[in-house]
């Protein structure tokens, strides 16, 4: 992938002329950046060719900001599927705006992008300190969410009508694409409204963002499912415990869950193709070895084995076939035709995981991410998503963040680790 420094350039609404109300803070200079690639060869090649090495602008408070906190109105929207930490992110943005910057007009838009379209009639709510006080204890999103495309023109009409200066959009790749459309329409109308994305993806599949919130909680909760699968599998003759985990296009949750539980003997992800024969062969040899087998499958894995779907959800995402149910039905059938009578127990914990409140680490992460989003918004940054890169918070232009989807590198450390930990054959085709 060839990338240019221009793709890392962050858009700014205008000159920052207002003194920041923050005191006792280490301000971040506009020139503070973190390298995109940190290997010596890349750095050397950039310097030898006389080009600036690729780097991200650092997030954090600016000494001079664009918006006057006394006269700024902000809105927050949460979109897409549920993910642990949504309420933490909302709360962090509210607290960051109100307590750090002294902003006193913060609206919550209801039910995703629908909340930005007047004809739905969803009334915005004022997000006071009291209103968000305990929301982090609950799963889901207190603002509600939705899928489904909404016209950017209608959404910007609403921003204008409500007098919003900064829109914070918490969501995944679809939300970020929607937020970018909004930013483009704002630019077309020559308005000074900032659009700041906060990356929500339980699958951790947003490019140029090392970690998104909810992922850590999901992996921890997946462990309960793999442990239950192990108990079931080991308690039956030729037992198989099959667990389906989230991961539409990227197998990060499945991979980390396999690493985290040594009982897992096989992990199937979208990035590594397999055949039913290959899987059954490997499962049977695992049973021969241990007497039982625990298998994790990511929801988007093995889609080539299922009938192609022509259906999509309201947001236009293609509905995937259910690989979990397919394997649950097919593995015992094929094993039996190989003369082995297996007992398979199937666990699909997806909705139970999505609806959990964030765990400690995700909660702390959301807090910092929310504050970084507020700093970016007040500084007048726009069309960006706040990210994490080499443990530094960054500003990533939305077009860059949605340009590709982050995938598990099958030659990389995670997948090689999974192969060693599970002992499964490299090639299951
Ligand atoms: P997740 O997939 O993790 O649940 P997401 O943000 O990708 O989160 P989606 O339902 O795909 O969830 O999208 C959220 C919102 O963004 C929806 O209202 C959807 O219509 C809108 N959206 C999705 N893709 C686009 C796009 N290409 N352009 C404009 N809006 C989009
Ligand atoms: Mg998505």
Number of strands: 17
Sheet/helix structural class: alpha/beta
Mean pLDDT: 96
Order of strands, widest sheet: 3-4-17-16-10-9-6-7-8
The CATH class designation of the largest domain is Alpha Beta
How much of the polypeptide forms β-strand, as a percent range?
15-25%
Low-confidence stretches: none
Specify the number of helices: 12
The percent range for helix content is 25-40%
The small-molecule ligands in this entry are: adenosine-5'-triphosphate, magnesium ion
Task: Please sum up the structure shown.
The chain has 429 residues and is α/β, with parallel strands linked by helices. 35% of the residues lie in helices and 17% in strands.
């Amino acid at each position: 992938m060839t990338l240019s420094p221009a793709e890392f350039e962050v858009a700014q609404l205008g000159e920052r002329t207002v003194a920041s109300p923050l005191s006792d803070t280490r301000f971040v200079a506009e020139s503070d950046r973190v390298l995109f690639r940190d290997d010596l060869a890349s750095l050397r090649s950039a310097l030898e060719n006389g080009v600036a090495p690729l780097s991200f602008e650092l997030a954090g408070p600016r000494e001079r900001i664009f918006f006057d906190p006394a006269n700024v109105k902000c809105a927050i929207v949460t979109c897409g599927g549920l993910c642990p930490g949504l309420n933490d992110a909302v709360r962090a943005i509210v607290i960051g705006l109100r307590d750090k910057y002294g902003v006193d007009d913060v609206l919550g838009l209801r039910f995703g992008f629908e909340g930005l379209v007047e004809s739905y009639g969803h009334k915005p709510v004022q997000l006071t300190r009291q209103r968000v006080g305990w929301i982090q204890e609950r799963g889901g999103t207190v603002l509600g969410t939705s899928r489904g495309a909404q016209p950017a023109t209608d959404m910007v009409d609403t921003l204008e009508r409500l007098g919003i200066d900064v829109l914070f959009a918490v969501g995944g790749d679809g939300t970020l694409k929607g937020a970018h459309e909004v930013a483009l329409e704002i630019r077309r109308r020559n308005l000074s409204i900032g659009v700041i994305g906060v990356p929500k993806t339980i699958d951790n599949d947003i490019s140029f963002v090392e970690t998104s919130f909810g992922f850590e909680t999901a992996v921890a909760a997946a462990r309960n499912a793999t442990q239950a699968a192990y108990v079931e599998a080991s308690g039956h003759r030729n037992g198989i415990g099959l667990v389906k985990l989230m991961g539409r296009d990227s197998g990060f949750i499945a991979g980390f869950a396999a690493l985290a539980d040594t009982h897992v003997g096989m992990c199937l992800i979208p990035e590594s193709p397999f055949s039913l024969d290959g899987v059954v062969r490997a499962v049977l040899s695992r049973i021969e070895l241990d007497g039982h087998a625990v298998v994790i499958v990511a929801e988007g894995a093995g889609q080539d084995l299922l009938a192609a779907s022509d259906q999509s959800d309201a947001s236009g995402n293609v509905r995937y076939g259910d690989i979990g149910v397919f394997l649950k039905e097919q593995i015992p059938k094929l094993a039996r035709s190989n003369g082995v009578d297996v007992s398979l127990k199937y666990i699909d914990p997806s909705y139970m995981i999505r609806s959990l409140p964030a765990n400690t680490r995700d909660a702390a992460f959301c807090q910092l991410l929310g504050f970084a989003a507020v700093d970016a918004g007040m500084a007048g940054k726009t069309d960006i998503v706040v990210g994490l890169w080499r443990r530094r918070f960054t500003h990533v232009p939305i077009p860059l963040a949605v340009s590709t989807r982050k995938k598990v590198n099958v030659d990389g450390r995670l997948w090689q680790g999974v192969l060693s930990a599970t002992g499964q054959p490299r090639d299951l085709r």
